[in-house]
Amino acid sequence: MARVLIIEDNERLAGLIADGLGAQGHVCDAVHTLAAAEDALAGTLFDGIVLDLGLPDGDGVDWMRAQHGPRPPILVLTARDALEDRIRGLDAGADDYLPKPFAMSELAARLRALLRRPGGRQDAVLALGNLAFDPASQRVTVAGTALELTRREAALIELLLRRAGQVVRRAVIENSLYTFDEAVTPNAVEATISRLRRKLEEAGAALELHTIRGVGYMARARGA
Description:
The chain is of the alpha/beta class.
């Protein structure tokens, strides 16, 4: 699970990309201008960016060249498919370049590859106790047996596994599981934790989800 910013002026296409990556377990926010992208990046920590180049308020190549300091990996998704365009985009700072039209499966695979690079978040497999989580397939197993989770439950267990033994604040969980457009009810995180905890207990998972009252939640191996 990763938080992805989609910068695409075609709202319908942006929605299709968000839906496709969302089905892979990612949390996606879509903006349609570079100005909106700047605002989003200033207030939220993203793991990756899918960037169109021809935007209403500027060119994505120029925008990449103007970026300074640490930033998420950028996957350019554009109709500019000439060799010189690809070279220009990569030299400007793109980490990958995919011409339109494209297959959603390839876009998802390329994004996974970017997130697996050093400094990225998508390790091969996450494990704690007898539970294993594969970020690429979003598959969860307990002692080798598959455990059926919803997309949001899988995203939550991934977040907690990546910080096993550490307290993950409630605000961090909300920010990771919900997009800008989704309303978050006061007990939404608690309800998801409760459902996930029940499923883990029923499956015999050798890990526990601890509630740190007023702060957040922590995953650790049972008995640790």
